[in-house]
């Protein structure tokens, strides 16, 4: 497929995934996986040194993370980080997406991690989740 | 300046017809819930330069608003209007949608084919200046773009404030 065909498709897929994500719909992860595959196809057509190739590579990894497909995140990140055409800025961006995906607690609560450490924060989150709802619901 | 939202797909050929129609529909719903009718005057600030625009669209069914999430209507209405403004005002056309987390909502091309990043925000009413400052900071981080712009649309007035910005130096 060509870029002219893939760009409208990825636009459509991202808009659909965003709507499902906002709704908290069960199909959101699957929709993000569609986005990741389209981004990967775009990345296959454009070199990493092209800004649009870089957008696609970041997008393929990020959307795989949103789809909770950690094996795919790692596989794509390894592939893109090994590309000799990838500049340092793109490598740093992909490494950050990879780190955020593998350590979402650190990505979402950086100040809490800095203050008490990621392990302690994870234990605290698990205990909080384990104690159930503090108020009767429904 | 005349902004015809029904021409969105012609302005941006890489938007498919369904996405363009969906954006236009939500813009119609968002504008009409504030009592506006097609051909409403819209104050538009383009890099500080004032333009009086006439904003036109195909009317939505009254019941359409009930089927849509209010927040999404505001956001997509703002995106439809912003895309019309950047096309008519700056000559940019959509390349593709940006992902959340990539510093911009849309990647576009200027008349020379150079990459441009556009970050959009929509509100029903309120402080657009502060929102615009936040969006400028966000879009300044869009990597690889030759041009960057932030646009805030207020539906109640309606008004649009678009600024082009330089990349933030490292």
Can you tell me about this structure?
The complex is a heterodimer of chains A (138) and B (170). By secondary structure, chain A is mainly α. Helix content of chain A is 78%, strand content 0%. Chain A folds into 2 domains: 3-102; 105-138, no CATH class. The longest helix of chain A has 21 residues, at 3-23. Chain A is flat, with a radius of gyration of 18 Å. The N and C termini of chain A lie far apart (50 Å). Chain B has 170 residues and is of the alpha/beta class. Chain B has one domain (2-165). Chain B has an 8-stranded mixed beta sheet with strand order 1-3-2-8-7-6-5-4, with helices on both faces. The model of chain B has no long low-confidence stretch (mean pLDDT 94). The chains are: A mainly alpha (138), B alpha/beta (170). Chains A and B meet through helix 1, helix 3 and helix 5 of A and helix 2 and strand 4 of B.
Number of strands of chain A: 0
Strand order in space, largest sheet of chain B = 1-3-2-8-7-6-5-4
Quick check: average pLDDT of chain B? 94
Most extensive interface: pair and counts? A-B, 25 and 23 residues
Helix fraction of chain A, binned, reads over 70%
Number of helices of chain A: 8
- Which of globular, elongated, flat, extended, rod-shaped describes the shape of chain B? globular
In oligomeric terms, what are we looking at?
A: heterodimer
> Helices and strands of chain A, in N-to-C order?
HHHHHHHH
| Major sheet details of chain A | none
Strand proportion of chain A? under 5%
Beta strand % of chain B: 25-35%
Uncertain ranges of chain A = none
Question: How many domains make up the 3D coordinates of chain B?
Answer: 1
Spell out the helices and strands of chain B N to C: EHHEEHEEEHEE
Derived structural class of chain A: mainly alpha
Radius of gyration of chain A: 18 Å
Q: Name the overall outline of chain A.
A: flat
């Amino acid at each position: 497929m060509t870029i002219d065909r893939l760009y409208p498709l990825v636009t459509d897929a991202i808009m659909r995934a965003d709507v499902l994500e906002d709704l908290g719909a069960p199909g959101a992860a699957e929709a993000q996986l569609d986005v990741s595959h389209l981004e990967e196809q775009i990345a296959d057509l454009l070199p990493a040194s092209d800004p649009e190739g870089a957008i696609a590579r970041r997008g393929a990894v990020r959307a795989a993370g949103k789809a909770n497909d950690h094996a795919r995140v790692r596989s794509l990140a390894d592939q893109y980080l090994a590309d000799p055409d990838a500049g340092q800025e793109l490598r740093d961006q992909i490494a950050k997406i990879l780190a955020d995906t593998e350590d979402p607690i650190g990505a979402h609560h950086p100040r809490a991690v800095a203050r008490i450490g990621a392990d302690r924060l994870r234990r605290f989150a698990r205990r909080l989740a384990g104690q159930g709802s503090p108020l009767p619901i429904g | 300046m005349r902004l015809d939202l029904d021409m969105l797909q012609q302005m941006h050929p890489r938007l498919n017809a369904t996405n363009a129609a969906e954006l236009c529909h939500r813009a119609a719903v968002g504008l009409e819930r504030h009592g506006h009718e097609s051909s409403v005057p819209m104050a538009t600030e383009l890099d500080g330069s004032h333009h009086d625009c006439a904003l036109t669209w195909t009317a939505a069914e009254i019941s359409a608003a009930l089927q849509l999430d209010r927040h999404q209507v505001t956001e997509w209405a703002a995106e439809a209007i912003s895309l019309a403004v950047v096309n008519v005002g700056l000559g940019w056309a959509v390349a593709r949608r940006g992902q959340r987390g990539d510093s911009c909502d849309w990647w576009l091309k200027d008349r020379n084919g150079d990459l441009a990043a556009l970050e959009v925000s929509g509100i029903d009413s309120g402080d657009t200046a502060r929102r615009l400052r936040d969006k400028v900071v966000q879009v300044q981080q869009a990597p690889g773009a030759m041009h960057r712009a932030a646009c805030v649309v207020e539906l109640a007035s309606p008004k649009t404030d678009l600024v082009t910005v330089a990349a933030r130096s490292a």
